[in-house]
Specification:
- It contains 13 helices and 22 strands.
- It is α/β, with parallel strands linked by helices and 464 residues long.
- It has three domains: 206 residues, FAD/NAD(P)-binding domain (3-Layer(bba) Sandwich); 113 residues, 3-Layer(bba) Sandwich (FAD/NAD(P)-binding domain), CATH 3.50.50.60; 116 residues, Enolase-like, domain 1.
- Helix 3 runs parallel beside helix 6.
Length: 464
């Protein structure tokens, strides 16, 4: 027997739950289908448990500054790794419980705990359920990618789906992939006493394209763990150990932490039965502003689209997909200003357009180092911010930074770029003293100096 619904939402992660919020504003005739582990990727194996691990590592690492501040006894501090990992899981479980209590449990009998697949564009099978839906939202999330040549070492591989389940830490580990999550976990493990070596086929880290910021980020992070860049790592067994080789350098480790990306969970959906055309990676072609796949009654959101695999993007996409699934005609929703943050110490952030996107245009670049008052007090006075603006009117375009508390600077810049503000607009805002944000002010002043001939009034004073 078929169940007829207005909307079927496939996936109960961040994107699916935000889509559900929009759908239920209009109709109560919907279902959410998910046969996997509930609780969202962020809460279970992503944003939140990783930040707990980072907090522990940063707190323990802080002991190296104690002598300079006259705090005695830092050298005697030790880390109980088993207790630390218990703490990670305890807070992780708290975050998951919050999602379950506030979102999942509220679905009641509208949640179908099965995996879904298409039979037709508007017909899904999920276990014994046949769901005929006017509209379908695909929000099936993603799974850590493990390249085929490395899978033979599966019993020695950790990913973000497994690393937080460790009860003890390995003595030696190779981090394969130095994007945000690889850098975060690699630095955290190193600070907790693990012998860490990082590898990436690219010659940049943290997704940063600005060469100056990348160069400094490599220098700062490389002081805590060796970074082998620009060559694909080769792995072989050497007795009970693993030998990881890249560009002529070999490292012996006990385990591998693979952080080379995530694969959308689309293979089991039988999308071709729904008339969905797929690209070479098996991902549908879709409109990023409406979330609609071609002209089909199917929308896609979150990690499943293989685009911006970040929680705030999944939430935005889910809301857009949910809204368009219950409104005609579909609306176009402006994308948010790109924002990525690696919660390393210092943070590595990219905002708006990248250096590669703007470097051949008429742009003004402002930069500043973090040898300013507050950073010096914090004993974190190494870093660099580079900001890009349109050379004709000073409109902010993008930025890259490696900076103490860079996560806050990146947000200020993302909001300013999203609101299409100029260098002058931002400089009219208050900058307190002493704060990290003064470094941004210095970079913007640098840019304003190059633009003042185009705008004569004092740029730091707003006319009444």
């Amino acid at each position: 027997m078929e169940k007829n619904v207005d909307v079927a939402i496939v996936g109960a992660g961040s994107a699916g739950l935000h889509a559900t919020t929009e759908v239920r504003r209009v109709t109560d005739n919907f279902v959410v289908i998910d046969g996997g582990t509930l609780g969202t990727t962020c809460a279970r194996v992503g944003c939140m448990p990783s930040k707990v691990l980072l907090q522990i590592a940063d707190d323990f690492h802080r002991r190296h500054s104690f002598d300079a501040e006259g705090i005695v006894g830092g050298a005697e501090l030790t880390l109980d790794a088993e207790h630390a990992m218990d703490h990670v899981r305890s807070l992780r479980d708290r975050f998951v419980s919050s999602v379950m209590d506030n979102s999942i449990d509220a679905l009641g009998d509208k949640l179908i705990r099965e995996f879904a697949e298409f039979c037709e564009p508007d017909l899904l099978i999920a276990g014994d359920h046949r769901i005929r839906a006017e509209k379908v939202i695909i929000a099936t999330g993603s799974t850590p990618t493990i390249p085929k040549p490395w899978r033979r070492f599966s019993d020695r591989i950790e990913t973000t789906d497994s690393i937080f389940e460790l009860t003890t830490l390995p003595a030696r580990i190779a981090v394969l992939g130095l994007g945000a999550i690889g850098l975060e976990l690699g630095q955290a493990l190193s600070r907790m006493g693990v012998d860490v070596a990082g590898f990436d086929a690219l010659d940049r880290i943290g997704g940063i394209e600005d060469p100056e910021v990348n160069r400094l980020a490599i220098d700062l992070l490389g002081r805590e763990m060796p970074l082998h860049l620009g060559a694909m790592a080769e792995i072989e067994e050497e007795g009970k150990d693993l030998l990881v080789t890249a560009d002529g350098t070999s490292t012996i480790v006990d385990k591998l932490l693979v952080c080379v990306g995530r694969t959308p969970n689309l293979a089991g959906l039988n999308l071709r039965r729904a008339g969905v055309a797929l690209d070479d990676d098996g991902v549908p072609h879709f409109d990023p502003e409406t979330r609609q796949i071609a002209d089909l009654p199917i929308f896609i959101a979150g990690d499943a689209d293989d685009e911006r695999a970040l929680l705030h993007e999944a939430s935005h996409e889910g809301r857009a997909a949910g809204y368009n699934a219950v409104h005609e005609p579909v609306e176009r929703f402006r994308r948010q200003a790109p924002l990525t943050i690696a919660f390393t110490d210092p943070n590595i952030c990219a905002v708006g357009e990248t250096w590669e996107q703007v470097k051949n245009r008429d742009v003004i670049t402002g930069e500043a180092r973090f040898d300013t008052g507050r950073a010096i007090v914090m004993l974190k006075d190494e870093g660099l911010i580079r900001v890009y603006a349109d050379g004709s009117d000073g409109k902010l375009l993008g930025a890259a930074l490696v900076a103490p508390r860079g996560e806050h600077l990146a947000h200020l810049l993302a909001w300013s770029i999203h609101k299409e503000m100029t260098v002058f607009d931002v400089l009219e805002m208050p900058f307190y003293h002493p704060v990290i944000e003064e470094t941004l002010q210095a970079a913007l002043n640098d840019m304003a100096d190059a633009l003042t001939e185009k705008r004569r009034k004092p740029f730091s004073l707003a006319l009444a």
